[in-house]
Amino acid sequence: MNVRRSAAVLAATAVIGTATPAVAADPSASPSPSVAIPEGLYGTSDPTYDGVWRQSLALMAQNEVSVDPADRAVAWLAAQQCASGAFPAFRADTTKPCDAKVMVDTNMTAVAVQTLATLTDRYDAQVKKAVTWLKSVQNKDGGWGYSAGSATDANSTSLVVGALAQAGVTVPNLRKEGKSPLDALWQLNLPCDSKDAGAFAYQPDKKGKLTANADATAAAVLGANGETLAGSLQDEADTSVGCREKEDDGLADVAADNGAAWLAKTLKKDGYLKSALPGSEDQPDYGNTADAVVALASAGYNDQAAASLRWLEANAVKWAEQSGPAAYAQLIFAAKAGRGDVHDFGGKDLVTLLNATGPAPSAVNSEPPTASADDVKPSHKDDDGTLTVAWTVGGGLLLGALIGFGLMLRGRKRQQ
Minimal CA–CA distance to 162: which of 196, 139, 140, 185? Predict the structure, then answer.
């Protein structure tokens, strides 16, 4: 089941106070906007529930393909921020200060940080304020829920981890009552003796049971590796290792590798992931599959990433055309991570299609050639199994000695 794809459903979830994963079409495709579409915003549908989300993905995707976004597009995103540092999904009038009616959340804040910290240093002050807010709403188990104070979930925690890492925070050192964000992710990792060994749950159910969730697993693989939604292509992993139990020194790559191995196994049969809509047969989940391709490539599972990318090339372009800029961005992330051609993806130029959904870019630069074996980044872990310094984002510290995963795997009840 897809738990992150619809910002509209997530916002509604926060209102009613539950954390049940939901399935819906990309919110960029919602009809009949009830508010005027602001200048600088990508997409033509109602931005009430996904404005910051789709804008962030669109700008990040442009950056991935050597396109300089329009200044007013980046400025629109930055202006959505509240004085607290947090971001809502959308606020029409940014001249008015945010009040209690403006719903801010960790997901919008994290994806905005990932984008602004990636694109430019012009908004360093805003990024710093957002990072401060994210730190202030960290849960006692080390993770984050969708809204401040809600129960930790794998997707929100992973988004925040990617944002903090991109902003220069050495994430494993960020602890709440002794617990790090990676401790929180480990709580949601299914043990190696279970049916879905290595997968991640979105949250425990009311009885504390963990159920494998493909979207949560893709998110957690990126989070455990300190990656943004765009991911990065890695050397081919040793796919014969299989599921490994949590180690005393708590290396984050164990969790990431376990999740990637489960994704690769799940995708091997059909090449794509499915979403179960109530009352209907399982349907292909294009967005979730694109996320999985990025996660697999970022963990070094390049063969399966390439196979699923081929399925997306053959099937997902129409979905993106119907869904809008965020969907185009997801396909661009997948194509870049899986060594695809963003300019000939199922016969379409994803870059041109994305650019056409918003203000004209400041510049469309010539792209570097598709990654070759010599261009691929080395694995997140060195030969001895420790994580690379890049994970710490300038900290210069090896993480093996810093991450404590001595917690027993335990469940957290959903927020009622």
Answer: 185
How many degrees, rounded to 5, is the angle at CA 283 between CA 280 and CA 284?
A: 175
Q: How far is CA 198 from CA 14, 306, 366, 371, 403, in A?
A: 28, 21, 40, 29, 19
Dihedral (CA of 35, 41, 46, 51) sign: negative
**212/191 Cα distance (integer angstroms):** 11
Q: 366 in helix, strand or coil?
A: coil
Q: What is the pLDDT of residues 317-374, one digit of tens each?
A: 999 999 999 999 999 999 999 999 999 999 999 999 999 999 999 999 866 545 444 4
| Rounded Cα gap, residues 286 and 264, in angstroms | 16
The CA distance from 7 to 28, in Å, is 9
Helix (H, G, I), strand (E, B) or coil at 179: strand
Q: Where are the beta strands (DSSP E) in 119-213?
A: none
pLDDT-derived band of residue 40, with 50, 70 and 90 as boundaries?
Answer: very high
Cα torsion 269, 270, 274, 279 to 10°: value is -100
User: What length is written for the chain?
Assistant: 416
Which ranges in 278-359 belong to alpha helices (H)? Answer: 286-298, 302-315, 317-323, 325-337, 350-355
pTM, 2 dp: 0.82
pLDDT digits (tens, 9 = 90+) for 377-404: 554 444 333 333 333 333 333 333 333 3
